[in-house]
Amino acid sequence: MPKLNLHRRDYVSILGGDISADKLEQSLNPHFEKPLNKITPSPYLTEKNLTRRWDKLAKPELQSELLDPHTQNQMHVYEKNIEHFIGTVKLPVGLAGPLRVNGLFANDDYLVPLATTEAALVASYNRGAQLLTASGGASAMLLNEGVTRTPAFAFFGLAEAGQFVAWAVTQYDTFKQLAESTTSHGKLSDINISIEGNHVYLVFEFLTGDASGQNMVTIATNAVFSYIMENSPITPENAYLDGNLSGDKKASSQTLRSVRGKKVTAEAHIPAKLVKKYLHTTPEKMMQFTQMSTVGATLSGTIGINAHYANALAALYIACGQDAACVAESAIGMTRIEVDRNGDLYASVTLPNLMLGTVGGGTGLPSQKACLELMGLHGAGKSQALAEVCAALCLAGELSIVGAFCAGHFSRAHHKLAR
Predict the structure, then answer these.
(1) Is Protein biosynthesis included in the keywords of this UniProt record (predicted)?
(2) Contacts of 363 by beta carbon, 8 Å cutoff, 6+ apart
(3) pLDDT tens digit sequence for 186-198
(4) What DSSP designation does 3 have?
(5) Which of the residues 108, 118, 267, 284 is marked catalytic?
(6) Angle formed at CA 126 by CA 373 and CA 353, multiple of 5 degrees
(7) Do residues 179 and 204 touch, judged by C-beta distance below 8 A?
(8) Rounded-to-integer distance, Cα 216 and Cα 240, Å
(9) In the chain, which residues have pLDDT < 50?
C-alpha cells in the first residue's frame, strides 16, 4: 500500500473514521436559530449604549480590564475611531534608540516608541539604533508621495471602452476641481489609465498632506465617480468606486517601481570595527547571509527583499495611531547589505509604500498622540519626518537581525528574553 503524504493523511482522518458523515453534515450545515448574544443595534458611543453592551455581556470581571476608570472617563475621545465601543486594550510600549536620523525632514536623535507583545523585538531595534547612531546616523530621503484610488468601469466591448477613455482624458480639470472640493488638504496630482479588454481602470493619484489619507481619497474619488456616472457619453454596464488596482492594504509588486503613501530610502556606511562591537560578526558574513537569503526569498515568491520590515512597522503603527492593516502593503521593499570599497559595511533600505500620517485617523487618540509627541512628530508638517524615521528604524532592524543570524545569536536572544 502506498504511503500517504501528510496532507492526504490529514484529510483521511477528517473524512474517514474520526468524524461520521452525519456528524460532518450536522456540524457544517447552516443554523437559523436566533443568536443568544446580540450587541446594541446602534454603533455609536454613548454612555447608554456602553452600559447596555456590558449588561448584555454580563461579564463584570472582564469589564474592569477593558473599561478601566481612566478609559471610561475619557471614552468620548474614541467616538470617531470605533463602533460598538466596549473599552480599550493595553499593549506594552518600549523605546528603541536613540536613533540618529540625518534626513531631508528628520534631523534628530529619536527615541522611538514601539508597541508589541513580542519579546526581543524592542531589544533588537534598540541594538540596531545604537549601531547606526555610533556610525553617525542613518541618512534618509523622502523620494515621492501619493495615495491612489482606482475606480473601474466595464463596457460591452473594447470600442466602447476606447470611447470612454477618449472622453475621460479631456476631463482632468473637472475631475481635479470636484475631487479637491471635498477636502482642504488633498490634491489630485495625476490620473493614469489601464485598459484590460472591455474593462477600464482610472488610477487617481492624490497628495494628502500630513494625513495618511485613505478616507480622504475615497471621499474625493467618489465625487468624481458620481460625476462620471452622470455625465459619461458612454454608459458602463458595471462600475465600482474601486477596482482593486490601487494596492490598498495588499502586497503589490507594482509599488516597488512607483509609490503609494510615502516612498523613502535610508542608508548607512558602518565601520567594520563597529559591526564587530555591536553585532559580533563581520561585513563579509552579513553580505554573504543577505545573498543567500535573497535567493531564498526569490524562491518563495516574496514581493521585495527584506528580513522583517513588518515587525518595525506593526509596532510603530500601533504605538502611533496608524492604520495597522496598512502593514500588509507598507512592509514591501528592498534591503541591500554589501561590503564597500573600504571593507566596511554598506546597508540600505527602500520602502515605497509607507502609509502613515501625523494628523487624522488614530493619531489624535491620547496614547497614540503621546507616542508621536515623544518623538516631536505629532501634528501638521511632521509626516515626512515620520516617514524618514520609519525607514531608519527598518534599517536598524535589518542590521540587527542579520547580525544576529550571522553571529548565531538569533535563537539565544529569543530564548533569553522570551522565557
Answers:
(1) no
(2) 320, 321, 322, 357, 369, 372, 378
(3) 999 999 999 999 9
(4) P
(5) 118
(6) 65
(7) yes
(8) 17
(9) 1
Give the active site residue among 84, 185, 199, 414.
414
List of residues 6+ apart from 153 with CB closer than 8 A: 161, 164, 199, 200, 201, 202, 228, 236, 238, 239
* Cell numbers standing for residue 307: 528580513
Q: Which long-range contacts (CB under 8 A, 24 or more apart) does 74-77 make?
A: 74/366, 75/45, 75/50, 76/45, 77/364, 77/365, 77/366
Query: pTM of the full predicted structure?
Result: 0.91
C-alpha cell belonging to residue 285: 558574513
Full set of structural domains in the chain with CATH: 38-90 (no CATH), 99-143+264-418 (3.90.770.10), 151-240 (3.30.70.420)
323 catalytic? Reply is yes
* All residues at 6 or more sequence positions from 83 whose CB lies less than 8 Å from its CB, including other chains: 43, 44, 45
Catalytic annotation present for 190: no
| Catalytic annotation, pick one of 180, 284, 323, 338 | 323
Residue 95 has a pLDDT of 98
Measured between alpha carbons, how far apart are the two ends of the chain, in Å?
45
